[in-house]
């Protein structure tokens, strides 16, 4: 049976880097699903990402609906590999990004209710199994520093809001195994944590419902 892993964390927490580690080390053993940015940038010629950044309030609902559709397609896609690792998920979309949009009044009350209805419907009707959540826990300050190094811009308040929403959601997540990695560290420092995480995922090792990985010994994959 396939093992499903979702990788969660703030903007610039290192999610793509985490997936690229598995791509380098275990390319033939995992199916890697990066966020489908290419789809969001070309909806039959429309760049939904660009529209969202130009007018967040006008396009937020459309973006959330379409991004949810693409995430659902990824979650339900079949693979021959026994491990599927996804960058973000429907769950963080709902509990972090939709909630943030509602708090900031970027979606209306009725749009928020529609998004919730959709989420409740497809999570109840579909088999959206998740075996592990890997949480790359990073402070908003570190995320902001990394974003600046990439010559990108992001508001610190937005990063703080997303951080708090991730913390709230994952502290109440009880039916999935949560693996927490301190992702404030450098890539060199994180290598051992990636190795431990791979060992747990590939061997489906029994572990507590919440596992702070940096306290665990390294084992062979």
Automatic annotation (TrEMBL):
GO terms for molecular function: ATP binding; deoxynucleoside kinase activity. The active site is at 87 (proton acceptor). It comes from the Eukaryota. ATP binds at residues 9-17, 146-150. One of its GO terms (cellular component) is mitochondrion. Keywords: ATP-binding, Kinase, Nucleotide-binding, Transferase. Residues 6-196 form the Deoxynucleoside kinase domain. It comes from Dinothrombium tinctorium. Belongs to the DCK/DGK family. This is Thymidine kinase 2-like protein.
């Amino acid at each position: 049976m396939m093992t499903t892993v979702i990788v969660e964390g703030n903007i610039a927490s290192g999610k793509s880097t985490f997936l690229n580690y598995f791509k380098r080390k275990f390319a033939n053993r995992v199916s890697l699903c990066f966020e489908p940015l290419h789809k969001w940038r070309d909806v039959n010629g429309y760049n939904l990402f660009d529209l969202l950044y130009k007018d967040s309030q006008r396009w937020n609902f459309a973006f959330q609906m379409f991004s949810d559709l693409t995430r659902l397609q990824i979650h339900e896609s079949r693979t021959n590999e026994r491990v599927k690792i996804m960058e973000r998920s429907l769950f963080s979309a709902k509990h972090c990004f939709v909630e943030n949009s509602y708090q900031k009044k970027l979606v209306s009350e009725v749009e928020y209710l529609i998004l919730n209805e959709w989420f409740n419907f497809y999570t109840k009707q579909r088999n959206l199994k998740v075996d592990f959540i890997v949480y790359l826990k990073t402070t908003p300050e570190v995320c902001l520093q990394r974003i600046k190094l990439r010559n990108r811009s992001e508001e610190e308040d937005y990063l703080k809001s997303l951080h708090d929403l991730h913390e709230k959601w994952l502290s109440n997540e009880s039916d999935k195994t949560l693996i927490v990695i301190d992702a404030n560290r450098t890539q060199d420092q994180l290598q051992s944590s990636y190795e431990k995480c791979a060992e747990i995922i590939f061997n489906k090792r029994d572990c507590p419902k919440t596992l702070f990985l940096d306290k665990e010994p390294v084992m062979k994959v």
